[in-house]
Amino acid sequence: MKHRRAAPEPFVRDVGLPIRTFQLWRRLLVAVAASARLDATHAAHFAGFADLAHFSRTCRRMLGYSPTALNSGLLP
Asked: Which of 11, 27, 47, 69 is 20 to 30 A from residue 19's alpha carbon, by CA?
């Protein structure tokens, strides 16, 4: 008997990402933008990260750079 794969959720079908991944990207972009005017810890909390370490790990994993490197203006 063949197992049928469940149809993708409407959000995944329309956007192409699971909603949790989309929310994480949005949170990350809000935190990066906020870090231009706030220190990294406050920017992380403002965007909804639990703490600075969570923001830093997510930033490195998804963008390839630490928040400090992004704010330094020294990226290629």
From this structure: 69
Contacts of 73 (CB under 8 A, 6+ apart): none
Mean pLDDT of the chain: 89
pLDDT at 9: 83
| pLDDT confidence tier of residue 6, bands split at 50, 70 and 90 | low
* Consecutive H or E run containing 11: helix 10-15
Task: Report the candidate in 22, 18, 40 with the shortest Cα–Cα distance to residue 31.
Answer: 40
d(CA 58, CA 64): 9
Could you read off the pLDDT of 36-48 as tens digits, one per residue?
899 999 999 999 9
